[in-house]
Amino acid sequence: MVAFVSLKREAIHGAVRQMYAAVAMAPDREFHFPTGRHACEVLGYPEKQLAELPDKALESFAGVGYPFAAGVLREGDTVLDIGSGSGTDTLISAKVVGGNGRVYALDMTAEMRAKLTDTADAVGISNIEVIEGDAESIPLPDESVDVVTTNGVINLVPDKARAISEIFRVLKPGGRLQISDIALTRPVAERFRQDPQLWAECVVGAVEEDRYLVMLRNSGFDKVERIGDLDYFALSSSSKTKEVAQLFNAHSVTIRATKPLQPLRPPVEAGARQAAVNLVRELGGVVVAVLAWMTCAGMPALLAALGAVGAGGLAAHSFMFPAFAAFLGFSVWLLWRSGRARSDLRPFWLGLASAAFATVATWLAIVGIAGWLGWWSYLGIAGVIGASVWSYVLGRQPGTCLEEMIFEVRQRERRGTLAHRFAVNGLAFVVVGAALYGLHLSITAFGIS
What is the Cα–Cα distance from 400 to 194, expressed in whole angstroms? Predict the structure, then answer.
């Protein structure tokens, strides 16, 4: 599991690197988010401040707000700029802290780091140190900086709690944090977060604003204050991006916070539990299909346990067969959900056919019509497992994120009231229960217990 989570994290980082390498190397290209000097002006950077910066730094600006509105920088401070990019915020910080201060510019995109290094050398600023790394593993000692600034970065980080904990770690007691980032008011469905490519292309990495503030407080920060917000995506040239932003109320927010002089508790290490949950969701079809196979095989340990507690009757074919069918049905339902999300139902159809074959073969073997088909049911189960793996590795096609997210929100809106949802779910429960009871009766009708 650790290896899987690590691979997914690297895939997200790779997609983000690719996107921002393009911003560095082709700043005149049109992106789904605003860039360059014009973006700085609209986001609130003072003209006087921009006039002091070289065009090379401004042309690849890709921030989402004006974090300096927090007003936490002081002369002589040591500053860490996370996701420094081409250096707009780094250069501003270097000027504010002066010759007695220092700025660490942290970025994982080589093209951005090279551009910032060249710019700093060209203008003769010597109190900047460009370093390679990412927010989840900051290569600086504990309590080594006075201020952390970041602009439009944390929403791209897979493990936000870990990144915030890292920020807390490197700040000195009494240190300050200023953030401009993307936040939502409506959560994005979990399945949209499973495609690494979409983290760079859409708002799938962002979280709800209230949750963002809670994560800061849970990591130990004090005086967490929301400075202001901005309809950032109104600046986008993409009509689809604007529509998605409106549906999820995606906006940029500026926040400041302080690390207490005497923390009441250490930073919270988080992420492992959520990673485990995500893994089960992604490979749920495989897990459930394996349970079906275990049921079909008899599950000796379970049967012994049922006998030990006086419930041995539940181990009869008339009970185990409906359980077997239910597991297969649940696996097929998971395939349907994931296939519908990416508009590719091929794994679902394979899973449905395989589950039907396994169910029929098992029923014919149990009732004695074709006992030799018993082993064939395992082929059907293997087909369901193969369909689940296929669904997992297939992935979504690039460029479908916005349409899928719009579809998801519209679907939620069509689901109606809570009473309506209870009625639909209740009807489904009754139908499934009746089907399983029918399978139970079909076995007993042959006089088989």
Answer: 13
Write the pLDDT tens digit of every residue in 179-195. Answer: 999 999 888 766 666 66
Per-residue pLDDT tens digits for 403-443: 556 656 655 655 555 555 566 656 666 666 666 556 556 66
Instruction: Output the pLDDT for position 371.
Output: 64
Crossing angle between the packed helical segments 209-218 and 160-170, to the nearest 10 degrees: 40
Q: How many residues does the chain have?
A: 449
Cβ–Cβ under 8 Å, residues 15 and 200: yes
143: nearest Cα among 262, 268, 321, 18: 262
Nearest to 102 by CA among 73, 65, 122, 141: 73
Do 181 and 130 form a contact (C-beta atoms < 8 A)?
no
- Using CB atoms within 10 Å of the CB of residue 384, give its burial: 0 to 12 exposed, 13 to 18 middle, 19+ buried: buried
E strands, 30-170, in order: 78-82, 102-107, 128-132, 145-151
Question: Please, what is the average pLDDT of the chain?
Answer: 77
- Tokens representing 219? 């990591």
Instruction: For residue 285, give the nearest of 388, 380, 377 by alpha carbon.
Output: 388
Q: Which of 268, 357, 318, 265 is nearest to 449 (CA)?
A: 318
CATH of region 2-269: 3.40.50.150
- Is residue 446 classed as helix, strand or coil in its secondary structure? coil
Asked if residues 89 and 67 have their Cβ atoms less than 8 Å apart, the reply is yes
Sketch the domain layout of the chain as residue ranges: 2-269, 283-444
Residue 172 has pLDDT above 70, yes or no: yes
Q: How confident is the model at residue 288 (pLDDT cuts 50, 70, 90)?
A: low
Q: What residue type is 5 in one-letter code?
A: V
What local confidence, expressed as pLDDT, does residue 303 receive?
Answer: 45
Average pLDDT of the segment spanning 271-282: 49
Run of H or E residues at 179: strand 171-184
